[in-house]
Structure formats: C-alpha cells, structure tokens
Amino acid sequence: MTDRYALGLARLAELGGPTPARHRVYDALADIAPDLTRYAVEFAYGDINSRPGLDAGRRELVILGVLIGLGATDPQLEAHLTTALNVGVSPQELVEAVIQALPYAGFPRVLAAMTIARQVFDTRNILPLN
C-alpha cells in the first residue's frame, strides 16, 4: 500500500466511507482493470480531494456540478450525492445545486441528476423534503 493510497483511503473514511454506488463501480471493473480502483483512491482522494482550501461540502458541490455537466455519470452522481449528505450538505442545498446547473448543463442532464437525487433521498428516508 502506497502513502497516496493510504491517504486516499483515510480521506474516503472521513467522507463517510466508500458508498455502495462507488463499490458497485469499482467491483464491476475489478476483473478487467484492477488498478483502476487504486488510481481513483490514490489520485482522486489521496492527491486531489484531500487538498486544503475547500471544506468537504463545498468540494462535493463542485464535484456534483462537474458530473451533471458531463452527463452519463449516474453511479458517480449517486456516490457524490450520498457523500455530500454524509458531510453535512442538506438535501435542500443539493436540490438547489442541481437546479443551479440548469442553464449550463440543460434540462436532460439536470432532470437525470434530480432523479438520482430523489433516489438517494428515498434510500435515506428523507422524503418528502420540506
């Protein structure tokens, strides 16, 4: 285990641990690309996500905006919506962040992201939102 990997695992633990969505993505690719998970943990969490300068909630909002703009990132959206809730971003703030992407990403991507947000909220038993 490298120092970067250990740092990445520690950061994931701080964020509430690996989400089920993240596990599904990594596990589904383990037999053809076993190093991909290591790269994600080392680079995304050990090198980038653990940097100072943004608190975890703001960092997750940035990540969500990028994922919505990219589109076709359903497992990653699910994972980061869950992480955002884990680090204290409220469901209402997440809804607002998704809506904020509308003029930049368009209706199809925002509607898809909001559908995933609803699924995450439902899984956490926090519907209906007030």
Would you mind describing this structure in some detail?
There is one protein chain. The chain is mainly α and 130 residues long. It is 75% helix and 0% strand. The chain has 8 helices and no strands. Helix 2 (20-29) packs antiparallel against helix 5 and helix 4 runs antiparallel to helix 5. The radius of gyration is 15 Å and the shape is globular. It starts with a helix and ends in a 7-residue tail after the last helix.
Largest β-sheet summary? none
Radius of gyration: 15 Å
CATH class category label of the largest domain: Mainly Alpha
Shape: globular
Structural class call reads mainly alpha
Low-confidence stretches: none
Within CATH, the superfamily of the largest domain carries the name: AhpD-like
Give the helix level as a range of percent. over 70%
Question: Which CATH architecture of the largest domain is right?
Answer: Up-down Bundle
- The number of domains: 2
Topology, pairings included?
Blueprint: H1 3-14, H2 20-29, H3 34-49, H4 56-70, H5 74-86, H6 91-100, H7 102-105, H8 107-123
Helix pairs in contact: 1-3, 2-5, 4-5, 5-8, 6-8
Give structural attributes.
mainly alpha, 75% helix, 2 domains, single chain, globular, 130 residues, AhpD-like
Concise synopsis of the structure shown:
This protein is mainly α and 130 residues long.
